[in-house]
Amino acid sequence: MSRDKWVGAEKHWIVDETSYPPILKGGSMIVQMSKTKLLDMIRTEHAFLETTLSQLSEAQLIQAGVHGKESVKDMLVHITAWEQRLIMWLNTAAHGEIPERPEPGATWQDMARLDERTFVENQHRPIRYVLVDFHNSFKQVLEEIETLPESDITDARRFGWTGGEPLWKVIAANTYDHYHEHAKPIRHWLSAME
């Protein structure tokens, strides 16, 4: 899969529509998904985020204010935290149990609190450790998805805890959609600096 064009001032991307259904602003608008396609999209979007990161110095990675008060480092910590939650959900489901989402003792109304806790817990961590965790978490996500049967990923009835959605949509929200969501403000910030 390749990024074949940029659209508008916000630089939304459109994938090659001959091989993939389009991804539209606001989330995954794909009607059909396969495990191969999902892994390809995850790898492609992560590679784009990595390419974005490669353009930054260490000082830029830790500079606050890239997106609100956040630095790029803060965004990477955030992405890693949500990937780790995804891994926890997948592991719990693999043992035939229903995962507590977003995490034990929390509800979706606690997302801002969870994100703030993640920020506070990691604000003084050196960027080198954040980058190691970011890369390792990505590898773990791929390994987890690669072990899943195709039907677990695509069958909307497979897991009751997904709210009637196929598992791939839960995975997308915590991988390629999430990578894109955070690469975009970094790209805007870089463009404004030029």
Please write out the topology.
Blueprint lengths: L2 E5 L4 E4 L19 H20 L3 H5 L9 H23 L16 H12 L4 H21 L2 H5 L12 H7 L2 H18 L1
Antiparallel strand pairs: 1-2
Helix pairs in contact: 1-5, 1-8, 3-4, 3-5
- SSE arrangement, N to C: EEHHHHHHHH
Shape: globular
Distance between the termini: 28 Å
Helical content band: 55-70%
* CATH-defined superfamily: dinb family like domain
Q: Write down the CATH topology.
A: Four Helix Bundle (Hemerythrin (Met), subunit A)
Let me know the largest β-sheet.
2 strands, antiparallel
CATH architecture verdict: Up-down Bundle
Mean pLDDT: 86
Which structural class is indicated by helix and strand composition? mainly alpha
Number of strands: 2
Ranges with pLDDT <50 over ≥5 residues? 1-28
Please give the order of strands in the largest beta sheet: 1-2
How large a portion of the residues is in β-strands, by DSSP E? under 5%
Number of helical stretches of at least 4 residues:
8
The CATH class designation is Mainly Alpha
Radius of gyration: 17 Å
Q: How many domains, in number, for the residues?
A: 1
